């Protein structure tokens, strides 16, 4: 009997240890170090560094790793999330505070596996869920470049995350659910340009980080359907819908112009996308921008059937009519000089509002923020002095902003839901950066 009990305890202990090992292998899987370092990357060190500098621009690394007015790549910028603030790290060549002591394998592990040199799991505010697609050669080129970035002896700041999101075990569980390392593989049946564009858009460009919706745990829930950017408050439109930012009916040259300069016939970028164009996309080659255009055009899906607007009650109909009348008066006072009585604008300085997809999306966040806070297209080499929109938030109250936005969403054949003063008020409290 005693031997049976001891045997049972031993079997239970072995099962328990086995379950721990299994759980550990799921939550902390072994690192994938990929192909041998430097297999195809440029052998000339200068060429490798130059390639890495170009790729760093393509990945817009400076946007997160350089605080406003701070030293390049020295970190310390707070990336606000619904779970708290992630503090971007120092990635200069400083050996103590930066990544100067990191090997090529260490750097690859961060991009591809989402782990730091010390083995700690990294938070996906650093978009390794996209960067995992980067090839080993490109990772090595990026590593070579960052080893040349002047060292800045700046200590990394601790994250400001709420419990339990500040726990490694919680992050390990998130990764087990939503992350699998995977290097990009060209797809057969597609052109060289399409595959190059897909690699840039899905990997270094990490476009899905903004242009996809997210679930409650912060994971991208679906592809390219558009989504509200957490905390910033801007809406990143769908890249598949022709009613939002789908580009299937655009010619490649027009897409390249928009990505390179921030302005193109019938379109102007603003908000966070203006920063992307200014800091990243304008520096890419026309060949790479053209490849991105090919891929982005292929994402568009057929437009869904339009749903008939719900009938308004007599009271609501009268209120809407009064709002549009007030909006028309405000438009004539503040907007008509630039955007014209017919809503046609004056290209390239002032965009047309008639037929403008950015105005007619169900989400009215972006036009509301543009009226409240104004904005500029990005300053680029080919558009060095862009025209801008002044901020009307200090001049107009919530009802007035709602009225003028509702008017431009309903005039000149535009047809979009009305905007309420409550929606406007909600955006006044959202930080600009």
SSE map:
Layout lengths: L1 H26 L17 H14 L2 H5 L12 E4 L2 E4 L16 H10 L14 H4 L4 H11 L13 E2 L6 H11 L13 H13 L3 H4 L15 E2 L6 E2 L15 H10 L1 E2 L2 E2 L3 H8 L6 H13 L15 H21 L1 H4 L17 H4 L4 H9 L1 E2 L11 E2 L8 H11 L12 H8 L5
Antiparallel strand pairs: 1-2, 2-3, 4-5, 6-7, 8-9
Overview of the molecule:
This protein is mostly helical. It has three domains: 27-178; 192-298, Orthogonal Bundle (Cytochrome Bc1 Complex, Chain D, domain 2); 314-428, Cytochrome Bc1 Complex, Chain D, domain 2, CATH 1.10.760. Helices cover 43% and strands 5% of the residues. The protein has 18 helices and nine strands. The radius of gyration is 25 Å and the shape is globular. The chain starts with a helix and ends in a 5-residue tail after the last helix.
Strand fraction equals 5-15%
Q: With helices defined by DSSP (H or I, 4 residues minimum), what is the helix count?
A: 18
Relative helix content: 40-55%
Which value, in Å, is the CA radius of gyration? 25 Å
- One letter per element, helices H and strands E, the order comes to HHHEEHHHEHHHEEHEEHHHHHHEEHH
Described by the principal axes of the CA atoms, the overall outline is globular
According to DSSP, the number of beta strands is: 9
Would you tell me the structural class of the helices and strands? mainly alpha
Strand order, largest beta sheet: 1-2-3
- Count of distinct structural domains: 3
**What is the first-to-last residue Cα distance?**
70 Å
Low-pLDDT stretches are 3-25
The whole-number mean of residue pLDDT values reads 88
Query: So what's the oligomer here?
Result: single chain
Largest sheet: number of strands, sense, barrel closure: 3 strands, antiparallel
């Amino acid at each position: 009997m005693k031997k049976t009990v001891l045997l049972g305890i031993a079997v239970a202990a072995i099962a328990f240890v086995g379950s721990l090992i299994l759980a550990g292998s799921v939550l902390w899987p072994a690192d994938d170090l990929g192909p041998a370092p430097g297999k195809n990357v440029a052998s000339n060190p200068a060429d490798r560094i130059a390639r890495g500098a170009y790729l760093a621009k393509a990945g817009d690394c400076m946007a997160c790793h350089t605080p406003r007015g701070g030293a390049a790549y020295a970190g310390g910028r707070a990336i606000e999330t619904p779970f708290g603030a992630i503090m971007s790290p120092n990635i200069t060549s400083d050996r103590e505070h930066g990544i100067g002591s990191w090997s090529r394998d260490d750097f690859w592990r961060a991009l591809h596996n989402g782990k730091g040199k010390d083995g700690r799991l990294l938070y996906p505010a650093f978009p390794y869920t996209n960067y995992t697609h980067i090839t080993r050669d490109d990772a090595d080129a990026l590593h070579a470049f960052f080893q040349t970035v002047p060292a800045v002896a700046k200590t990394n700041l601790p994250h400001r995350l709420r419990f339990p999101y500040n726990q490694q075990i919680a992050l390990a569980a998130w990764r087990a659910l939503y992350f699998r390392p995977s290097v990009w593989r060209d797809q057969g049946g597609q052109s060289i340009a399409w595959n190059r564009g897909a690699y840039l858009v899905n990997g270094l460009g990490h476009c899905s980080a903004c242009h996809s919706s997210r679930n409650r745990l912060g994971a991208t829930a679906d592809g390219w359907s558009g989504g509200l950017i957490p905390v910033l408050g801007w809406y990143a439109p769908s890249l598949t819908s022709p009613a939002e930012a789908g580009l299937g009916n655009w010619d490649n040259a027009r897409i390249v112009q928009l990505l390179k300069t921030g302005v193109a016939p019938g379109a102007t970028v603003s908000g966070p996308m203006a920063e992307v164009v200014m800091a990243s996309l304008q520096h890419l080659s026309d060949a790479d921008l053209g490849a991105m255009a090919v891929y982005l055009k292929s994402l568009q899906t057929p437009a869904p059937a339009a749903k008939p607007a719900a009938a308004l009650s007599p009271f609501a109909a009268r209120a809407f009519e009064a709002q549009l009348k007030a909006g028309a008066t405000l438009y004539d006072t503040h907007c008509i000089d630039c955007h014209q009585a017919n809503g046609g604008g004056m290209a390239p300085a002032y965009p047309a509002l008639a037929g403008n997809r950015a105005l007619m999306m169900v989400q009215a966040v972006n036009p509301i923020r543009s009226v409240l806070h104004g904005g500029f297209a990005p300053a680029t080499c080919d558009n060095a002095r862009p025209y801008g929109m002044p901020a009307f938030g200090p001049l107009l109250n919530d009802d007035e902003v709602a009225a003028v936005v509702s008017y431009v969403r309903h005039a000149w054949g535009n047809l979009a839901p009305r905007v309420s003063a409550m929606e406007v008020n909600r955006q006044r409290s959202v930080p600009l950066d």
